[in-house]
Design brief:
Order of helices and strands of chain B: HHEEEEEEHEEEE
CATH superfamily of chain A: YVTN repeat-like/Quinoprotein amine dehydrogenase
CATH topology of the largest domain in chain B: Protocatechuate 3,4-Dioxygenase, subunit A
CATH superfamily of the largest domain in chain B: Aromatic compound dioxygenase
CATH architecture of chain A: 7 Propeller
Structural class of chain B: alpha/beta
Helix content of chain A: under 10%
Order of helices and strands of chain A: HEEEEEEEEEEEEEEEEEEEEEEEEEEEEE
Number of domains of chain A: 1
Structural class of chain A: mainly beta
Shape of chain B: elongated
Largest sheet of chain B: 5 strands, mixed
Largest sheet of chain A: 5 strands, antiparallel
Distance between the termini of chain B: 30 Å
Number of strands of chain A: 29
Number of helices of chain B: 3
CATH class of chain A: Mainly Beta
Oligomer: heterodimer
Strand content of chain A: over 45%
Distance between the termini of chain A: 32 Å
Helix content of chain B: 10-25%
Number of helices of chain A: 1
Number of strands of chain B: 10
Radius of gyration of chain B: 21 Å
């Protein structure tokens, strides 16, 4: 489903007001990146260069390192919440798990022969992967077992893993969100309206699941009951990404005609209210949660600038 | 009693009206004959981000005064054994002439059911182009009992993107995975009221 969205997201610009943003670091990369992610609450930035190599930069010290992989990376990269592991999808449709502290590849997985749509890692041993035209899978590094999830028509978008590593959620193209336990057993199928959900993120305590997508709403699912307990007002246009930090979610929205980024909003889970962040378009290639607020990474000429958004 | 193909071949061979070359038995010949008649499943294609449940059950998606070339799409739904799939559900959605999906309502969205001849049809307008996609297209989600759901897209040989040569140029849109999804267009009607007509047969794989 989301190949269009992912392509847009990874080449993207977002909209933020200059006054909301504060540059906190500039990293000399020496390479151009085609994808990046923010790891460990803003401690590190990881990126895939145009040759498919994985780079890791420490934001505080600005030190960089390269982790070699056997195949070129395809373009998707994500981190565990603690920033200790990263996963990236390769051109041969495999997924490799990297140890960011040890600067080495830990494992290679092959979910299917189809292209990877999205990945999620927890702080333990789980990796959840969704693929084009196939069922998502959960891999458990500790037990070396894998579990295939339901295959709704159209497939699933990027999965999410609860902070305790016990649950996995997927936004599915049949417009439902499904919640599974870590062994792949379906716990709940939640109707999320007539349009597709694109993103699911667990709250930091794992009790709630936030869902956003084509209908420009944020739905809050109570994980225990599997029911939608809150729905935001319409926040604008269809979503391009959703990042949760504390009680807030940074939502990037698209122009529904060009599917290019249009505006950014910060939605508060406690109040169910949103505030628009307006300003000049800027080119960012990654956004992620920080210890307080969010970090955005902007690509410049063989360098990255890291910005704080509160 | 109607003979199955193997028994028919056996009987014909016994009567001398068909001869089997060395190495061929009626069983092998019947299996090969059956296999040659299997239909190739329609190629899948991405679902895209703007599917919406609850589309109205109407074959008329075009309203009076809608801009764009009127379009009529007709087709039948089969399984790979060539059996007609009556009462298959065919969901279609597309942009309007200007390349915009209706996310608030159900314009240019429909849920159709195949009739007793396994045929579906709808009236629409030729979909528009929009920046995130190269080609004009109509999304399909087709479901029938005993078959795998199919998600695909219909494309048009008249799309300017193909420069009149879809055989050579269909991959200008990297989401078109099969040339067969690009269908010929017949213009019909009178000179003041031209309609583009497209035939798009669907073949579903069994479960």
């Amino acid at each position: 489903m989301k190949r269009i969205l992912v392509a847009t997201l990874f080449s993207l610009s977002t909209i933020c007001a200059a006054q909301d943003l504060k540059q906190i670091a500039k990293l000399d990369t020496g390479v151009s990146l085609r994808a990046a992610a923010i790891c460990g609450q803003g401690r590190e930035v990881v990126g895939i260069d145009t040759d498919g190599k994985l780079h890791v930069w420490d934001v505080a010290s600005k030190a960089g390192a390269v982790i070699e992989t056997s195949e070129k990376a395809r373009g998707d990269i994500t981190c565990s919440p603690d920033g200790r592991r990263a996963s990236l999808s390769l051109q041969d449709a495999s997924v490799v798990i990297a140890d960011l502290a040890g600067k080495k590849i830990l494992k290679s997985l092959r979910p299917t022969s189809h292209a990877v749509q999205g990945m999620a890692l927890d702080n333990g041993h789980l990796v959840a992967v969704s693929v084009d035209d196939g069922a998502p899978k959960i891999f458990n590094d500790a037990s070396d077992k894998s579990f295939e999830l339901a295959r709704p028509f159209g497939g699933a978008g990027a999965p999410a893993i609860s902070p305790d590593g016990l649950l996995v959620a997927t936004p599915d193209e049949d417009t439902n969100v499904r919640i599974y336990d870590a062994s792949g057993k379906l716990r709940a199928t939640v109707d999320c309206g007539p349009l597709e959900p694109f993103f699911v993120v667990f709250s930091t305590d794992g009790k709630e699941l936030y869902v956003s997508g084509a209908d420009a709403l944020v739905r809050t699912i109570d994980v225990a009951s599997g029911k939608v307990v809150r729905t935001s007002e319409k926040l604008g246009t269809a979503m391009l990404s959703m990042i949760v930090s504390g009680d807030e979610a940074l939502l990037l929205m698209m122009d529904e005609y060009t599917m290019a980024p249009k505006e950014a909003t910060i939605w508060n889970a406690k109040t169910n209210k949103a505030r628009k962040v307006l300003g000049d378009p800027k080119n960012y290639i990654a956004a992620g949660p920080a210890k307080s607020g969010f970090l955005l990474v902007k690509q410049e000429d063989k360098a990255l600038s890291v910005w704080e958004l509160k | 009693m109607k003979l199955d193909r193997r028994d028919l071949l056996s009987k014909c061979a016994a009567l001398g009206v068909v001869s089997l070359a060395g190495g061929l038995t009626p069983l092998l010949a019947a299996a090969a004959w059956d296999a040659s008649e299997k239909m190739k499943p329609t190629s899948p294609c991405e679902m895209g981000p703007f599917y919406k449940t609850g589309a109205p059950a109407t074959g008329m998606m075009r309203a009076a005064n809608d801009r764009g070339l009127p379009l009529e799409v007709i087709g039948k739904v089969f399984n790979t054994r060539g059996e007609l799939q009556q009462n298959a559900k065919v969901e279609v959605w597309q942009t309007d002439h200007d390349g915009r999906y209706d996310l608030n309502g159900f314009r240019y969205r429909a849920l159709l059911h195949t009739d007793d001849k396994a045929q579906y049809q709808f009236q629409s307008v030729m979909p528009g182009h929009y920046p995130a996609r190269v080609c004009q297209h109509i999304h399909y989600l087709v479901r029938a009992e005993g078959c795998k759901p199919l998600i695909t897209q219909l494309y048009f040989a008249t799309d300017p993107v193909f420069d009149g040569d879809p055989d050579k140029n269909f991959q200008r849109d990297d989401l078109i995975w099969s040339r067969e999804l690009v269908r010929p267009v017949m213009l019909k009607g009178d000179p003041k009221d031209v309609i583009a007509a497209v035939n798009f047969e669907i073949v579903l794989e069994g479960l």
